[in-house]
Structure formats: C-alpha cells, structure tokens
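User: My advisor, Dr. K., asked me to get a structural model of this assembly before our group meeting. I'm new to this, so sorry if the format is off. These are the inputs:
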Amino acid sequence: MTERYLPLMATVTVFLALFVTGGVLYEHFFSTLVLGHILADNAFIIIAAIGTTFVILSGGIDLSIGSMIGFVGVVMARLDTLGWHPLASAAVLLAFGLLFGAAQGYIIDFCDIQPFIITLAGLFMLRGACFMVTLDSIPIRHPFVDAFADTSIPLPGDGFLASSAIVMLVVLAGAIAIAHFTRFGTNVYAIGGDRASAVLMGVPMRRTTVMIYALGGFYSALGGVIYALYTSSGYPLAGTGNELNAIAAVVLGGTLLTGGVGMVAGTLFGGMILGLIATLIIFHGSLNGAWIMIASGVLLFLFIVVQRSLVGSFNLRRSS
Amino acid sequence: MYKTFAAVFLGVSLAASGASAVTIGFSQVGDEGDWRPAFSKDMQEEAKKMGIDLKFADAQGKQEDQLKAVRAFIAQRVDAIVIAPVVVTGWDQVLKEAKRANIPVFLADRDVDVTDKSLYVTRISADFSLEGKLAGAWLAQASKGTCDVVELQGTVGSAPAIERKKGFEAVLSQFPGMKIVKTQSGDFTTEGGKKVMEAFIKATDNLKGICASFAHNDNMQLGAIQAMKEAGLKPGKDVLMVSVDYVPAMKAALAKGEANASVELRSAIGKYIYPVVTDYLKNPKELPKWIVIPSDLHVAAGN
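Assistant: The format is fine. Below is the predicted structure of the whole assembly, which you can bring to the meeting.
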C-alpha cells in the first residue's frame, strides 16, 4: 500500500529540495513571504488543476481550462460594469462552468469521442467567446474586490496567506474528501484504472463521466473567479496556455496520465513546484523567462520517466 | 550625444565611488517584435555600465508571470522596481504590496490603470502623440503647408495608432492646405502596408494629387514603398514618405532616398530610466506622473 504514496513522496521531496536550494542560493528566499507568494500567485492554477486531477485520474483530459479562466474573467468584469456584485456573477459563472463541463462529459460519453477533441473544441469556443465579450482588459472596480484582496492570515515570519490561497486550501480539502471518501471518488479511480472492469463492476459510466467533467468545469471556473479577483480585471487573453500548466501540475503531483493512480494532494505540490521554479529563476535575475519553461519541461520529463519505471516495477511485481 | 557622455560619466563615477550597488528589479513584457528585445538588451547593458544590480524578469506576455516577478522582487527587497506592463489593468493589489514594503515602483513604456496614482512614482516613456506631431511638423515644412496626405494606420484601437494619428492631425489642423484624403489600417505590418498602398494607388489613379504618405510605423511604410515601386512610382520623389520607428531597414531606405523622414522610437532608453530611479532613491520627492523620453526626427540626406 505504501507504493501508492511513492509518487506523492517524490513530489514533496522535490518541492522541499528546490525550496532549500533557493534558500541556500539566494538571500531572503527561505521565508514565509516567498512561500505565501507562491501559494497566492499559483492559487488559481492549482484550483483549476484540482479539477483536472479528477479528469486525468479517470484517464481523460481537459483542454478547456485556460479559456474557461479567461472567459470567466471577462464576463465577471463585464457584469461588474453593469453593476453586479462579484459574488453574484461568480455564482452564475460557477454554475456555467459546471454545466459546460457536464455538457463536455455528456458528449464524450454519449458520442464516444476522445475527450482531447471535445475539450479542444471547448478551448476554441470559450476563447472565441472571450473576444466576443471584449477586446480590451476591463477593470473590476467593486469594493468587494479590494476587501477580498486585503483579507489575509499572517504567517509566522514576514509572510501572509492571501485570500486566494485560503480559498485554494479550502477547495483542496473538499476535493480530497470527494476523491477518497465518496462512492464517486472510488468510481473515478475504477474507470481510470481499468475501464472494462469498471463497467463489469457496475460503475455508472455516463453519470460518472458527466460528473467528472462537470467537476473539471466547476474548478476551472473557480480558478477563473480567483484569477479575476486576484488581478481585479478581466482580460480576453488571460489564462492562455494555462490548461497545459494545470496538466503539468497534475503530472508533477504524481498522477499518472493514463489514469487510475495519483492523489489530489499531490497536485498542490505539483503546482507549487512550477511556481517555485519561476520564483527561483526570477531571484537569479539574469536568466531569460524562457528558462522557466525549459526548467519546467526538464523536470516534467524526469517525472514521467521516473513514474514510468515505478509503474513498470509494479506490473512486474504483479505478474510474478 | 552629450547625454550619453553624461550617463557614462555618471556610471563611471558611481562605479568608482564603490557605494553599495543599487538593486533594481525590471519586469519586462516579453520579447515580441524588434523593439522590445532591443529595449531589454539596452536595460541590461546600461545597468552594467551604471553599476546597477539588475534583476531582469521576462513575463513571456503573461500577466500572471509578471505579478509573480514583481512579488519575487518585493521578497528580495530590491531598492526599486521598474515595470513595463503587459496590460493596463490588474495592478492595484501588487502595487499596494510594494508600497507596504517601501519599494518605489516606476513604469516604463505602457501605462497602468490604477485608482490610486500614488502607487507608482512616475511613468517614463516616449510620447506617441509627440511622434505624430513631429512627423506632421516635418511634413508641413517640407510641403510648405499644402499637402494631400494618405495615411497608413496602425492596428485599430492600439495606443500608438490612436496617439500618433492624434498628434499628426493636431499639426495638420493648423494648416488649411493640408488634409488626410485617405486613411486605412495596415496593422503595423509590411504586408498590410503594401496592400493598403496598392488600394490607395488604384483608388487615386496612381496617387494623382497626393503629396505625402504618413505611416504609423516603418514596416508599413516599407510595404508602401514596395507597392509604389511596383506601380512605377518613385517613392521619396513623387510622394513624400514620413513614418515612425527608425528601424534599420528604414535607415537604408532613407539613404537610398526612397523615404524622406522617420521619427525614432528609441529602444536605448535605459539611460533615461535609470537616472530617474537612482535620483529618486537618493532624494525621494514627488515627480510628475509622466516623464517623456525625447523623440528624434531623422531625415534623408539632401532633405
């Protein structure tokens, strides 16, 4: 049973190793301020990635995340100019995300089409919709946005836990409960592990698939709400490419892209590793931004290789 | 030239004095186009000359990366932060955090849209409207105040296109004999400029009665030059050619006499930005919210 925790342990180890490395290399790095910044700056992507974790655990993929983040932001900003309270527009958009995801899940199961294609269509539609709403960035001026941004919990030292990070941690706790303590969570792992056996075991395929993508849509919409509050604006290009960051966070978090193996908690550390790499390179101060992507790519590659060999050794054990 | 010497001298004297180096964090948009990488390179080279410890972060065009960079600068306790913003919105919160940490923020290039203007010290950038005015003033002089102009606009709605047009028209409005007879967007690209000029040539019977072409950037003007040559016209002689940017290809066109004037959009602006920052650090006082980097007009030999 301890094998289950191996990928998570590897992720946490890499995170700690990177953090200590930063602390050794740079002054002011090893602080709760930096830790708090990483949690806050990556909260929206980690929230979206939590939804993606369920999708990937079931053996699927969701490419519509980044566009959903952008779409939610511009609609929130537009509704703000019409006098809506951000919480009201957030509620409407979360419902929209849930329904949009559910529709994607339904089409994937009903038409038996690969999730890659359906969610790619979702990516294009939502990004197009962003440009229909506005071509410019729109500020959100409601006092609630400032109140939300100013809310924080001080950490020991000079750091603080920003409101976006608090929301992310609460959402994470909820997702862990769903994944490990509900019938639905068990079904997700069953479908991802072995689809044919899941069908034989009587897992309700359609209902579960719809729920998985609905959850994915909900979490990416929530990521969009947090991003809009965090930047107090909507921008039609926001979130471009973030679906790939979310997938990277999930994989770095120890979830297998083939499904069935992984943990929601790992995604938190996967997302934080990506944030940590960016922070390390910015602290260095003379490396081009391209190095953030290169370093993330190398780390992602190493993780896949390690996972591959881990899974290989499990299979060997099973067959012997 | 004098200013360059002054900057170098200042840099040398700073380096020689051996005072604890000033650390500045600079968050750049990305490396799109020709102008921005040149701007980034100049900021790094100028910092070295002036003995400034520069922390450079390239946001790859993403605001979330830029916010991360600014927060990392705050955590590093840099002495000052320079931001060339990706977008105008979304800056209130991070600028408040910088203010709480007592780190002054300066803007380069684009503006930000914040409710509290005291969140940044000043913006240091070129004045697009002034570039349009310079182009207009040159044309007024060259044409002695009588000229039918065709205009190649930049991307519709973009700040440089709006401001350059405004500045150019402000000068033209002073001369009853000068007017824009045709105007269309060429999207700041060479192909766009060529297509628009081809359409103008057809619509005006080989530019009959047209005395000048004003393009919002050099790339479009270079496309226009190509279109005119293909139609058998002599750009720079039959029609006066004036544009903005002063890119290397335009220098060549000016030397050949195919273009007449170009207003330079400087990329070597570190020498304008750093002194403002270092002076402020030594003596923090209220500055105007916008410090304009001067624009120079370059004309073809013989003009």
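One thing worth pointing out at the meeting: Chain A has one domain: 42-272.

User: Perfect, thanks a lot.
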